[in-house]
Amino acid sequence: MVELGNFSPEERAAQEERLRSVWKTPGGWRYWTSVNNSEIGLWYGVTAFAFMLFAGLLGLLMRAQLATPNNDLISADLYNQAFTLHGTVMMFLFAVPIFEAVAIFLLPSMLGARELPFPRLSAFGFWSFLLGGIFVCGSIFFDSAPNAGWFMYPPLATDKEYAGIGADIWLLGLSFIEVASIAAAVEIIVGIMKCRAPGMRINMMPMFAWYLLIVAGMILFAFPPLIAGDILFEMERMFDWPFFDVSRGGDPLLWQHLFWIFGHPEVYIVFLPAIALMAMIVPTFSQRPIVGYSWIVLAAVGTGFLSFGLWVHHMFTTGLPQISLAFFSAASEAVAIPTGVQIFVFIATMLAGRVIFSVPMLFGAGGLAIFTIGGLTGVMVALAPFDWQAHDTYFIVAHLHYVLIGGMFFPIVAGIYYYFPFVTGKKLSAAWGKLAFWLMFVGFNLGFFPMHLSGLRGMPRRVFTYPEEFGWNLFNLVSTVGAFIFAAGVATFVIDILRPKPKTSGRNLNPWSAGTLEWTNDPQESWGMRSVPIITSRYPLWEQPDLQANIEAGRYYLPDAKSGKRETLVTSVLDAEPIQCLRVGGVSYVPMISALALGGVFIALTFHWWIPTIICAIITLIAIVWWLWTGTAQIPEAEKVDVGLGQELPVYVSGPASVGWWAMFITMVGDGTAFASLIFGYFFYWTVHDDFTTGAPGPGALWPMVALSLFIIAWLLTIVARHLNARGHPGCRLALAAGIFATVAACLAGLAGPYFHGMDPTSNVYPATVWVIVIWTVVHGAVGIVMQAYCLARNFAGRMTTEYDQDIRNVTLYWHFMAFTAVITFAVLGLFPMVSA
Amino acid sequence: MKSVIPREVESLWTLFTAPTVWAIHFLGCYAAVAVYCAKAASLDFGFAVVRLALGGLTVLALMAIVLSAYLAWRQWGFGSGDPPHDEPTRRDRTLFQGFATLLLSGLSFVAVVYAAIPLIFIAECQR
Amino acid sequence: MMADGSSDVCRPRDLILWTSRSRFGSSSILFSALSLSGCSGPHSALDPAGPEASHVAHLFFVMLIAGIIIWSAVVAALIYASRKKRVYSEQSAGRVILWCGAILPAIILCALLSYGVWLMPAVRPWLPDDQQVHRIEVTGEQFWWRVRYLDEAGEVMFETANEVRIPVGQPAHFLLKAVDVIHSFWVPSLGGKMDMIPGRTNPLTLMADREGIYRGVCAEFCGQSHALMAFTVRAVAPDEHEAWLVERQVPGPRDAEGLAVFLKNGCGACHAISGTAAAGRIGPELTAFGERGTLAAGTLPHTQEDIARFISYPERTKPGVKMPHFGMLPEDDIKTIAAFLKELK
């Protein structure tokens, strides 16, 4: 057992002064340059919640229109824009971002870290989200909102006459937000794996962290296929490349595959974090540790995997072979098992504890009752024969709202009631909470239960009106009344949050007597943990006596901020042994400028303003390089620093021990998934056509093989450069320069194949597919050039040395993926046509 | 077997072995029938061959999962200690990993069996 | 539909008739409760009129009973767990997870999955593409249905729109296509839906057990007037159907004066009437238009006034429709055309 620190009151006051000044949130308008997780998390959450209220109003508008048959309150076109935006905003601007918000806000405190490893990346994600969200939502006020459904099926959504600029706003606005989500996923994975308090082994992690780890992993595999789909889609809309145009060999079903490979995991991506909140709330109010910790891990990991085998159940009526449908039926039923386990883990915990039935529990239990109905109807529609009837009817509308509102919205509200004191130091009112709950619960069931019946009685979805003679009138009227009662409940909840609260007497950091680490934090201070504790229990506040006092007395790690920099601990993945004192980024304009510039790229593209697009792209590139140059891999003043408890840790580590290496690895896994989706597209077209090249010339074998060889050479040169740098050999610079030349040549050779064979991407889907894959690889080559050049410049500037070589190690890692991409690209494009012929 | 795989696989990744086997089996089944049904006209074997091959794949997958379950059971000390495995020791962390892996192997086993059910009932490429 | 007067008004009698017809004994009471107003009409998956719909309704009923039991048990457990005085040991609570959360669901789901997967080839059996049968080709267009009757060799016998006739007790084989965007063909009383996707041809076989008029709708969002894209299936006796197939291939009598006005105003550019100069292929075929029960793809009743109204301002009935408005024509011309169309057999 290590000996804890012991400081006199004067020393402690001085420490606190230094910590306070290091972690200070700037005042005035510079407040918005803050990158601290508690600010970013709060902004993120409030913004997502505001988007939810906006989308909810759209929902009410739709319900008002459907209150009576043949109603003409709003036009068909406005209705179609409203339901498209309702779905889009709820999924992309509320459900996913709210969990990112909660994660960014809570994770550092739960894990005992001062900050997530890349605070500026979180800030970048937030500004991207805000800009993209306003862009997408604002469109409805100009009558140009997307109107082809949140699923954007071509050819309706590629029809320029029907889906005008709205479709581009959807594609580009959301692609931008997807980038932000992937950034958040990287942040969360690295944070959970590497930034836990010492002693917090993986069997001690809070349940919330387990869920979030799995969810962030799912984002990494779920979002990239949609980004790949967006690229194909936008290429068709902007440049007439016929990916989904049947007359030129395209196929609208490819979009459906890519969309739902994203779309179904997405449901679990929003559901699991909400259940994760429940997994924090239930033990607190059962006054005991969770029963079945390992079962929760089974449920989270199992759901994470199985959720990728469900996507075709959104396509049961597209006429795929029955046996294909049946495989997806099987996985869709299997995923119910881990979901059932989760519910029974909560019941078991309550059975083994003494339950205090508070407002958070009320929302949690009510949500579970609703969600169970949604789960059971989910088991029903997972069977293809029943889905053939239920698909695209109000039965599905009922099912999905039972799942999402019961499984996600109610737990989120429970979480807000639970964590409100954590954020503000004050509780919300129990009386208001009960009123809000009953209004929401009754209103919800009144609003959505009748939809099961109207659906089975033949009412299809996405209709702006309906005839009066089929017995749907009463159901719809009741639904509308219920929806407004539900809205009244939400309004009550919002008022409860906004109304001024009476001053509370005394300081009570842990009003619910919870056992997890986050409740040691003082919301008045922006440093998070006063000192980073050693953890020996899953519920340290219950089982580690004096923990709170010791943390506040600065008796644990990092009690001071002598360096004047923001510091947090990095620990090992499995057993959480301290390995590094990580310096994270502080207050800065760079994330905001980069996000706004990148947003400018997407917005200018929407309107086909090419010059502003290029200008914004250049600003983005400069901002990001500036960000990296000044903010990452800084050579420290000393190799090791004192982290307290008589321990010294390195400030700078490189390779797999560093968080940057992990971030690169994780990003490239996501990137590889998007690439795999494009390759999937290539083979998809091969299966749908008897002769997928339709006699068109391919890129040949010569140029692709030349490009491949050059990419391999560039990759080897990068590796050589890394080794030479490690030995302090000046040949490193030469190798990097040669690598740049090889990459340039490789990119040109890659483009030469399709170019010299006269492949016209607008003529047929085959040349279009070849071009898009080649361009993907060449763009990655271009990024590789920037990285090689960056390393060269760092080397010249003395910012990358033999000892401090993080830059080139991360760049080499990038190049491993680059080489893999090049091998697949050129082997498939150059050789597969020969094999299949 | 014991000599090949270290007694305590010091990695987080063993947790994902069984679900990964499920994923490979699932994708194998899906890709095989998708390609077969799209290209049936140009292939000179019947659907029965595909079913049989996928049946074989199922057996292989189940065997792999059973192996993973056995290793997990061993890591869990053959059930010598009950959960919760929440002591701050390396031993409890390992036991926890073993137990969680065992549970995931069970789930993956069931999921693979489910995925094989269509092979019993559906004999053609009908839509 | 309303013009047919088949079931536009819900009468208690229908409930009694329907219940006695039901093949599921005790389930009928539940179905009736679900159908609430008593008759769930010609457009309900809960009022099956064909084998696929019956099988699926039965499947639903089984799942509904199981679902009610499971939900009640879970909610009861939740309430008990939050109210009870006794504190259970971690071991016994753990057993609840193992048995209620994992093993029991795994067994139930396995049985249910087997049932569902077995049902798939049972309700939609294998029919090779090259088998020589009569097929009905239905093409989804914004926002109506082009219907073509094909002979055994796959040649078009004749074309019609928005209404399909099938023989009772015999499988009707549909070939489903789309030209513009994705649509979905769904007749809830007879069976599940099947999408119509540009570039693909999807097969669907449906059968009606009893004579009647069943309503179908487009189930995939297809643009502005997706809500207004319905059709009618008439199930008639097989011999009557045979006779109709023959009769339909010979043009019926036409009112010459009406035809002249029809042609004079250019209607023939988009619409076809067999045996006349009107041969347009853009809009719905109007041969034998008079025998249809509804107008504008199941949107309006088939009366002369409504036909005239639709011709004058189609956009008012159906936003986004391709047909231009003809409100500028002399009122008499419109009336004549409407009368002519109403009488086309």
Q: What is the strand and helix layout of this fold?
A:
The complex is a heterotrimer of chains A (837), B (127) and C (345).
Chain A: H1 9-22, H2 37-66, H3 76-111, H4 119-138, H5 165-194, H6 207-239, H7 252-286, H8 293-306, H9 322-334, H10 336-351, H11 359-381, H12 384-390, H13 394-424, H14 430-456, H15 473-498, H16 540-543, H17 547-552, E1 567-571, E2 578-583, H18 590-606, H19 610-631, E3 640-644, E4 647-650, H20 659-688, H21 702-726, H22 731-756, H23 765-796, H24 806-836
Antiparallel strand pairs in A: 1-2, 3-4
Helix pairs in contact in A: 2-3, 2-4, 2-15, 3-4, 3-5, 3-7, 4-5, 4-18, 5-6, 5-18, 5-20, 6-7, 6-8, 6-20, 7-10, 7-13, 8-10, 11-13, 11-14, 13-14, 14-15, 18-19, 20-23, 20-24, 21-22, 21-24, 22-23, 23-24
Chain B: H1 17-39, H2 47-75, H3 90-121
Chain C: H1 12-21, H2 27-35, H3 51-83, H4 90-123, E1 135-141, E2 144-150, E3 156-161, E4 163-167, E5 172-178, E6 183-186, E7 194-196, E8 202-206, E9 212-218, E10 230-236, H5 238-248, H6 256-264, E11 294-295, E12 300-301, H7 304-312, H8 314-317, H9 331-343
Parallel strand pairs in C: 1-5, 4-10
Antiparallel strand pairs in C: 1-2, 2-3, 5-8, 6-7, 6-9, 9-10, 11-12
What labels describe this entry?
heterotrimer; A: 837 residues; mainly alpha; Four Helix Bundle (Hemerythrin (Met), subunit A); two-stranded antiparallel sheet; two-stranded antiparallel ribbon; 24 helices; 2% strand; globular; B: 127 residues; 66% helix; 0% strand
Report on this model:
The complex is a heterotrimer of chains A (837), B (127) and C (345). Chain A has 837 residues and is an all-alpha fold. Chain A has a domain at 659-836: Cytochrome c oxidase, subunit III, four-helix bundle (Four Helix Bundle (Hemerythrin (Met), subunit A), Up-down Bundle). Chain A is built from 24 helices and 4 strands. In chain A, the strands form 2 sheets. A two-stranded antiparallel sheet of chain A has the order 1-2. A two-stranded antiparallel sheet of chain A has the order 3-4. In chain A, strand 1 (567-571) and strand 2 (578-583) form a beta hairpin. Chain A is globular and about 80 Å long. Chain A starts with 8 loop residues before the first helix and ends with a helix. By secondary structure, chain B is mainly α. Chain B is 66% helix and 0% strand. Chain B is elongated, with a radius of gyration of 19 Å. The model of chain B has no long low-confidence stretch (mean pLDDT 89). Chain C has 345 residues and is an alpha+beta fold. Chain C folds into 3 domains: 12-123, no CATH class; 135-248, Cupredoxins -  blue copper proteins (Immunoglobulin-like); 256-343, Sandwich (Immunoglobulin-like), CATH 2.60.40. Helices cover 38% and strands 18% of the residues of chain C. Chain C has 9 helices and 12 strands. Chain C has helices at 12-21, 27-35, 51-83, 90-123, 238-248, 256-264, 304-312, 314-317, 331-343; strands at residues 135-141, 144-150, 156-161, 163-167, 172-178, 183-186, 194-196, 202-206, 212-218, 230-236, 294-295, 300-301. In chain C, helix 6 (256-264) crosses helix 9. Chain C is elongated. Chains A and C meet through helix 3, helix 9, helix 10, helix 11 and helix 12 of A and helix 3, helix 4 and strand 9 of C. Chain A: Residues 17-548 form the Cytochrome oxidase subunit I profile domain. Chain A: One of its GO terms (biological process) is oxidative phosphorylation. Chain A: It is found in: Cell membrane. Chain A: Pathway: Energy metabolism; oxidative phosphorylation.
